Amino acid sequence: MESCKNEGTQEKDIAKLSYYRHLFNTEFNPSFKMPYRDTCDKAKRDIQEARVEDRPAIEEHHKNHLEEANKRYALKDTDKIRAKLPEFHEVVAMMDLQKCLPTPNLSNCQSFYLRKLWTFNLTIVDTTTNQSHCMVWNESLGGRGGNKVASCIFKFAQGLPNSVKEITIWSDNCASQNRN
What we know:
The protein is an alpha+beta fold. It is built from seven helices and five strands; from the N terminus they run ααααββαββαβα.
């Protein structure tokens, strides 16, 4: 508000925080929740659809799968801690190809299917510096395959300091991300 007054904006034209809060909470009705962990729907479905005599083996396989996942989470946490040590010249990053965004974002049913330009966003979070890097492109420039993802990773790596000797990148099981 002070910066608006300093720029000469009249007080009647300055939006108050209370008005913004009211508008945001009544017009947009946001809700917040804790993020969920990715779950393996296939394993759950296999257990539900299995014959009674096959369930113990499938449940054991699922239990082993979860133990392996927990080991990977622990490895990722270890990498993040180690990368922050001053004697290591390493960057630990996590990346994910976010949900495809329709552009423009229209809610009209008819126009939703008549026109769409899909926009892709690969987000890379450098846990060493706590900086996020978003590489955004639309489908006219390329798809979301391995070559495009590799180009984004290369662009990210080019922006790192010369002192970095190693880059560790964690991602989910998306084929185009992991095959690079």
